[in-house]
Amino acid sequence: MRLRTLTAAAVIFLFALGSGSTAHGAAPTPPGEITFVGTDSNIYYCDAKCHEPKCITCKAAAMHVRRDDARDNAIVKVDAVPEAGPGPGATEYGFPTFSPDGKRIAYSAETHKQGEDSFAVWVYDLARSDAMLIFESRSERIIYMVWLPDAQHLSFLLGEPQGLSLVLAEVKESTPVRIVTTGMPLYFDWGARADEVALHTLALDPDRTEQVALMSLTPTSQGVVKVLSRGRTPFKNPAWSPDGKHLAYIANDHAESSIIVADADASHPRSVVSLPVGENSFIWAPDSAHLAYATALTAQDPTYHGIKLVDVANANSKWLTKDDVAAFFFAPDSRHLAYIGVPEDKPYYSWSVVDVKTGAVKAIGNFLATPEESTAYRYFDQLAVSHTIWSPDSSSFIYAGVRLIGSPDKALGIAPAPSAWIVPIDGSDPHQIANAVLAFFSPAK
Fold this sequence. Notes:
The chain is built from two helices and 33 strands.
């Protein structure tokens, strides 16, 4: 698949410099908060209006003050930006991740300074405007972060010379971290408690065994308690249903792959759909009653040929779209699914939204993705357990990139800086937030 990114297509035909205009006018501001990575590689936070985004990784350039008459006219600080993370300069911040309760944001930091590398995980408390260092390494790059459902623990993947390590940390200062397992690749989802994790990995042992398994953790030990599938399995991550009652994964039996839905403890597994040959991805609907799934011919060209929806109770499937797509995302109401189309022989991606109940598809618009967003799309099924592009009320979604006007066939102009866009699905004007390369909404509560 030819990536429709700013690096792959440095110039474009027509682009949107502002919020644009349509016959529908502006939509009401959706609820929820936003976090995004700016084009300056800092992390920002704001509500959906986002009139003044707050930089949570910038050095404080100034301090706002007010007079407090209750304290004998003392001058006190108001809304000062903390010194969060390593110093300025060569530090780049990435993949901000809201905690499940929306009260904190975890993010990675990468610093290259005078021949010394530093990689770190920070957690920012939104109420206290305070950042806490959770982990730091001189050699291990942070690949991806996932909060556990209790909002008190954070897990992340470390990139090491021999592969990946899954690390578990309690969100407290000066608390030792725990290596859960290693592998390459390594996909995972945590259960309702912090003592179980579903894994799909290729072991680093000489046999390079691939398996899907459940691992149990106690304060003093950890280990695989059940192997769900062993051998070549063409998918990424297993996932518990949002209500925690079921576990879905893909198994390969005699060269035939199937989506398996089991009880939460992996008992009573049953096939809900047989899959065509290829690389597969699925995500749960928030209602825990449906799965959306798609198949790509090869892992090297991850273009999915349509999206289907399966009812996990009766195993009935139906097409949601037969378009070629790069990624898809359920809205919190389970009624809508946004997907990124891959128009044939075009230098851009397209957004569309399908009404899951009626099957009606609405074209939203075309865009160029940033490299950071393209990486997120490549692993959207793993990202679905930790991030959301949808507003909590399902009225809008957010992305970062260059919004196009029309359907250009070739590159003819100079592209502006990418922006974060809030896009209402009712056809109202998209709302331009700020220059950004990656953006997410806070989770629905």
